[in-house]
Specification:
Length: 162
């Protein structure tokens, strides 16, 4: 069910002349997810660790009474954990009946990007990251990587099965 919703959001985003995306940075990379998938963006919250949880799950946060699983995208992508734990942002997304926080280094602006600049994922992108990518937007100075929320959140099922 969620996969069909995700696909319809991506199709809607890429069907027009421009896509409205929530941009963010992780290390030197610029990433985005469709604005339609974002519930809100919040500053760092108190995180309660989850014993024996996957390494990429920082823990749980209490967001106005709702329990939110915090997924550290740096760790998920195989990048080093950030030294200064207070310098990050949470992008809150809803998947099914659950809320998740995507822990990112920095939030960029909401961007309207021309869909003519969208391309499939290049072969040169690291395999650890490629499985989470929908495609890329070629901008003037760099690439903006469009992530697949479905693939990021499904990783929990894959990792537990191993």
């Amino acid at each position: 069910m969620e996969e069909a919703v995700q696909d319809s959001i991506i199709e809607a985003v890429l069907s027009g002349d421009t896509s409205q995306l929530c941009g963010f940075k992780i290390m030197d990379g610029q990433y985005a997810i469709p604005v339609l998938e974002v519930q809100e963006v919040v500053k760092p919250q108190k995180v309660t660790p989850v014993p024996l949880g996957p390494e990429y799950v920082d823990g749980l946060i209490n967001l106005r009474g709702q329990i939110v699983t915090a997924i550290n995208l740096r760790v998920l992508f195989g990048l080093p954990r950030k030294e200064d734990s207070d310098e990050y942002m949470n992008i809150i997304v809803r998947w099914g009946d659950s809320l998740y926080s995507l822990v990112v280094d920095e939030i960029m602006d909401v961007m309207d990007i021309e869909n003519t600049s969208f391309e499939d994922t290049p072969d040169t992108i690291d395999e650890n990251l490629k499985k989470y990518i929908r495609g890329v937007f070629k901008l003037q100075d760099n690439l903006l990587t469009l992530l697949s929320l479905e693939k990021i959140l499904d990783i929990k099922v894959e990792k537990k099965a191993n």
